[in-house]
């Protein structure tokens, strides 16, 4: 597998996008967003994940982050995807979900071609990772992440979107701590 868009180092920050197969809008439900938040918290507390910015959109998540304390970011992301895949499927099966049948069928069909024995595939293969190389680049990516829900017309102002670090940067209530970068 190519490492062109993989975060294979430790102690270096990356802009990462992780996307659901077929760009399915999984994260329109609070319970699914909370799975991601809780998994990110776990990775922060137990796997050396340091987050500088994030935004959970309906079909993908953006992060600016790095692996610390000897943890390699690609390993953290791999474990995050594996864990959240199982929890997302479990939640679709066990909690009220009007889209249950077609989502489960889509996730099943998404892994039919795989060689390894797998029942469901929630995330696209790999993830898109861009190495952070300058303050200008990181500012551009933070602005992009925070304005994603505004561009999508979900909210009028970036800090109004609850599942984004724009709230952290605006000193507003949030569910996920981030390391604030003041490059502006």
Descriptive terms for the model:
184 residues; 4-stranded antiparallel β-sheet; globular; disordered N terminus; Transposase_17
Task: Please give a structural write-up.
- The protein has 184 residues and is α+β, with helices and mostly antiparallel strands.
- Helices cover 38% and strands 14% of the residues.
- The chain contains 5 helices and 4 strands.
- The protein has helices at residues 30-46, 73-94, 100-109, 135-151, 166-169, and strands spanning 14-19, 49-56, 60-67, 128-131.
- Strands 2-3-1-4 form a 4-stranded antiparallel β-sheet, with helices on both faces.
- α1 (30-46) runs antiparallel to α2 (73-94).
- The termini are far apart.
Q: Could you tell me how far the N terminus lies from the C terminus, measured between alpha carbons in angstroms?
A: 37 Å
The major pleated sheet works out as:
4 strands, antiparallel
Question: Strand order, biggest sheet?
Answer: 2-3-1-4
Continuous helix count:
5
Low-confidence residue ranges: 1-5
Shape label = globular
Mean pLDDT score = 91
Q: How big is the Rg?
A: 16 Å
Helix content: 25-40%
**Strands, total number:** 4
Q: Strand content of the residues, in percent?
A: 5-15%
Helix-strand string: EHEEHHEHH
In oligomeric terms, what are we looking at?
single chain
- Summing up helix and strand content along with how strands pair, one would put the structural category as alpha+beta
